[in-house]
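We modelled the chain as a single entity of 445 amino acids. Its sequence is:
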Amino acid sequence: ILGNSLETIPQFPNKRRHKVFPIFYHVDPSDLRKQTGSVKQAFAIHENKYNKDKTQRWRHALFEAADINGWHLKDRYESEFIGVIVKKISTKLCEIRSSIPNNLIGIHSRLDKLYDKIDFGEDRDVRIIGICGMGGIGKTTLASVVYTQMSGDFEGKCFLDSVREGLMKSRLISLQAQLLSKIFPGENFQFSSVYDGIEIISRRLRHKKVLVVIDDVDNMQHFECLAAKRDWFGLGSRIIITTRDEHLLQAYGVDDMYKPTTLNASEALQLLSLKAFKSDTPKDDFMSLSKSFVQYAGGLPLALEVLGSFLCDRGAVEWRSAIDRLKSEHEEEIHNRLKISFDGLKETEKNIFLDIAHFFKGWDRDFVTNILDGCGYHPDIGLNALIKRTLIRVENNKIWMHDLLQEMGRNIVRQKSLNEPGERCRLSEESDVYHVLTQNSVSIS
């Protein structure tokens, strides 16, 4: 009976969401793979009782089971060993229990791979994990789901989003203070230098098990002021970093790196359909057109969401016109895939989008509404239109925009005058503002 059960074990990992964790209790996995020592002796006995085909299947199953990642007692105390197993299994159950929104297509398989690298439940070390990939592929989404699911297992937690937006001294100090304030709520942290912040972080967190996500890193200074060394954090801590720059992670020396893949054709079609038709599959007479958009989007989740939202409630004639226009764009830049949604906005909505891209990302919705209302933009209607198109989102009453969409908006304005910032309708870069003020190059028109 035991042998027959053994045959089924290696099959489970190939089935959706099934996990197998072998426990090697007073046996070395290498002995199981090589089938030497006591394992060899046991099989010799079984071969006298059962036919050769059956024992050969058992040999093969045992070999495969020994190749699955699990726990090896080695020389550890059994109580410690049991504690590790309980923590790991509890973590895995938490991953399964936590609800994930249905619109996050394809995320389960990607989370499984990421969790394997993060190695939650192992409290003997501090692990730093990088999530690396192009903009719009879902790095922040993955990090957010992990943060939501697992933060309850830590003594402190902090999610620092969009850290790449500035490298000014005041911005770095603000990030350090934000890290400390979220892990020690109720305490007020004030310091005047990055070095003071480093000293406080390393001193206050070195014995605390924390989960920290540093989102959208693009410069080594972010690492140096927030998480330069592992001994700044208590054992069991996990630091997760998202970035587009793989070389930054290599230079920093992360423990492991996960590179999310684009959606496959089936996943991409499902995501586009959810946005365009509020259904898992396209309408029958839109299937061919939907596949054309899926092919153009290249499996990029952000592009599929934006395109699907743009196409929602539109007829086949408009769909064909949109795909013809996209195909006429010879550049492969993702901005071109997203800009079609911007071009479909009313003029007032375009102005609101550009203002948010330049000035109001992360600001309170009520405050932004008052400012835009003063400009005569009718912001309640305009903001809702942008939300419906997946061009912005509102979380905790703050307005957010994907950094790729923000870049697209700023690039639209930049293209109006590449060489003279003073001729642009909006300025957000410090260097451009400095140039205009020092050169007095503002265009009155």
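As a brief sanity check on the tokenised model: Strands lie at 23-24, 71-72, 127-132, 156-160, 210-217, 238-243, 256-258, 393-395, 398-400. The mean pLDDT is 84.
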